[in-house]
Specification:
There is one protein chain. The protein is built from 13 helices and 14 strands. It has about 325 residues and is α/β, with parallel strands linked by helices. The protein has one domain: 4-Layer Sandwich (Metallo-beta-lactamase, Chain A). It has a seven-stranded mixed sheet with strand order 6-5-4-3-2-1-14. β7 and β8 form a beta hairpin. The longest helix is centred in the first third of the chain and has 14 residues.
């Protein structure tokens, strides 16, 4: 990948080097210019659409969702509440949607799965979209279409839209392995441990210029470390375990079931850096913050324990952030 400093190489300098054989771009600079050209042709964009953890709506973060844009095609990972609106705010057209991947069926990850497809169609989507997730994704897709059948049929008749049911190709993931591949991406699903939510999956995306791995919601899982080995970017959930009691007190005082779920279903700050270091990833991106509001969601809190073990770049995810 090109380095950030490449942004400061001007077009004029590049033209001068090419046309007049100037020595301005030599050595490292010339090599960097070649890298920049290659990257621009097959650039993979990673945009964090929603970085909150948990189903409760929050003022400062949206529900879990991400998008990879590769050669102008969009691949959405998770579809929490308002994902379609977040796509628009990120400058990504819903009509560029090629595939959707759901990690597991907690509502913060799939609440707007059907709406994403429906609203993309309403925006002018005409190509088929493949969707992947644990069972019962195929049944969920059928039920969503049934629930909205009145509106869908009317728009197909009056607005001459293509038949929505024919555009959605839903697939239940059945175990680890490659689930999707086209000219832009190869997507490998791998099972992770998310307490009672079984099966739950993470995803590895191999694109022409990047390897990006999404942990999903998970405890420390050997499967994840193996699949993230030497990845360019690991997008990993994180929980501030020291703040769980305060979080439960705010949401539902005394609910030990909620506390038990948070503690046992997720990865605490103290483990995330170790996982990234063991996998040998180049960059670690933190997302799905729990808590993701209130006094325990501050920038200075999240990286301190992570950086004890992981010495590479650590990115604190924010909604609509593009990770370079």
């Amino acid at each position: 990948m090109g380095k950030l400093t490449l942004r400061y190489i001007t077009t004029a300098k590049l033209l001068a080097a090419a046309l007049f054989g100037a020595t301005l771009l030599t050595g490292i600079h010339a090599q960097a210019a070649d890298t920049a050209t290659s990257t621009s042709e097959t650039k993979t964009r990673l945009i964090l659409l929603g970085t909150a953890g948990g189903p409760l709506p929050k003022a400062n973060r949206s529900a879990p969702a991400n998008v990879l844009v590769v050669n102008g095609k969009a691949y959405v990972i998770d579809a929490g509440d308002s994902v379609a609106r977040q796509l628009i705010k990120a400058g990504v057209s819903p009509t560029s949607l090629r595939a959707v991947f759901i990690m597991h069926h907690h509502s913060d990850h799939n609440a707007d799965y059907g709406n994403l497809l429906f609203l993309s169609w309403a925006a002018g989507l005409k190509n088929a979209v493949d969707t992947y997730g644990p069972p019962p994704l195929v049944k969920m897709t059928s039920l969503f279409l049934e629930m909205n059948d009145w509106d869908i049929q009317l728009r197909q008749r009056e607005e001459h839209r293509p038949e929505l049911a024919q555009l959605i190709k839903a697939h239940n993931i059945q175990g680890d392995g490659v689930v999707y591949q086209d000219e832009n991406v190869k997507v490998t699903a791998f099972e992770v441990e998310h307490y009672g939510a079984k099966p739950s999956y993470g995803f590895r995306f191999d694109t022409p210029d990047r390897v990006i791995v999404f942990s999903g919601d998970t405890q420390r899982t050997a499967n994840l470390i193996q699949m993230a080995r030497n990845a360019d970017i690991l997008v990993h959930e994180v929980v501030n375990d020291e703040a769980v009691d305060r979080l439960v007190q705010r949401i539902d005082p005394g609910n030990m079931g909620l506390k038990d779920h948070i503690v046992n279903a997720h990865t605490p700050i103290t483990e995330v850096g170790k996982i990234a270091a063991e996998a040998g990833v180049k960059t670690l991106v933190l997302t799905h913050f729990v808590p993701s509001d209130g006094p325990d969601d501050k920038d200075e809190i999240w990286p301190k324990d992570v950086r004890k073990d992981f010495k590479g770049p650590v990115v604190l995810g924010r909604d609509l952030m593009e990770v370079k």
